[in-house]
Amino acid sequence: MQKIYVELMEIDIAKRYFEAELKFNVLLADVNKIIAESVQDVIK
Hints:
2 helices; 91% helix; single chain
């Protein structure tokens, strides 16, 4: 798996896809955190 990942990272479009996916996952985690905090505030 690691070998395939290294090979894919040498392809520019694949590298940009993985970088975009990582940024999207961080964004989604941030949104989920904000929602969870808001729900906690309402419950209290």
